[in-house]
Amino acid sequence: MSAAAIRVDDVTVHYGEVLALDGATLTIEHGRVCGLVGMNGSGKSTLFKAIMGMVRPDTGSVLINGHSPAKVRKTGAVGYVPQSEDVDWAFPLSVRDVVLMGRYGKMGPTRRPRAADHAAVASALERVELTEYADRQIGQLSGGQKKRTFVARGIAQGATTLLLDEPFAGVDKRSEATITRLLRELADEGATVLVSTHDLHALPALADEAILLMRRVLMHGPPADVLQPENLALAFGLDVLGRGESA
Ligand SMILES: Nc1ncnc2c1ncn2[C@@H]1O[C@H](COP(=O)(O)OP(=O)(O)OP(=O)(O)O)[C@@H](O)[C@H]1O
Ligand SMILES: [Mg+2]
């Protein structure tokens, strides 16, 4: 049997004194869309960064398709849409430049794009409906367009594992629907998607499975089970769906 798309085993991460992940363990199989939910500070972004190899776990291990994050990043097989707060939007890059970055691994040391690279960028931009914004500086985009730019980068690089950190934050319903549909299409083509969100109501339409995070994985199962009020209470400590009684 082939290795799981994402395997996180007993990962603990500290930032100085702060314990951000505490023995997080999870496995996601190929072709799945997995929603990641948890309160602010529960370690979602840290989990993405640990999977990407951007923060080094104190203990534990991460494997993507059975390989280390560093190795998989070199091949371009893993794509990452960072949380908006983690991006320098003033950086002088156009939409096309960002998407072209997804091709760097395939370009060789000179980083001179060839016809195939330009074609991949054009096709990815079309897929996320940003063709007409290709020359726009990335800071001069709406929230939804910014997210779609990074999704296009993942598509252009041919990523089979996609990590999206809050792609729906500051995004209108139409962009949310476009991104949700795109993620489903990519999963149907065999990609594995891990996507964090605070939109609990949208979770069943978005994801095949969901993870409830609170420094560790509290629960991993069908979205409907994860959304049970008693499970949400564990992760959020209150009646987040607004349908229970107060204490
Ligand atoms: N670079 C950093 N230095 C120090 N502490 C950090 C750093 N990044 C995150 N933390 C802390 O680690 C914990 C987990 O943060 P993380 O960003 O992973 O949470 P999150 O679930 O993504 O939150 P949010 O929903 O607000 O995006 C928090 O307590 C946070 O303050
Ligand atoms: Mg975060």
TrEMBL record:
GO molecular function, one term: ATP binding
SUPFAM superfamilies documented for this protein: P-loop containing nucleoside triphosphate hydrolases
Gene3D superfamilies, sorted: P-loop containing nucleotide triphosphate hydrolases
Residue ranges of coiled coil: none
Domain ABC transporter as annotated: residue spans: 6-240
Keywords, sorted A to Z: ATP-binding, Nucleotide-binding, Transport
Record flagged with keyword Nucleus: no
Entry's family note: Belongs to the ABC transporter superfamily.
Listed name of the protein: ABC transporter
Taxonomic source organism: Leucobacter komagatae
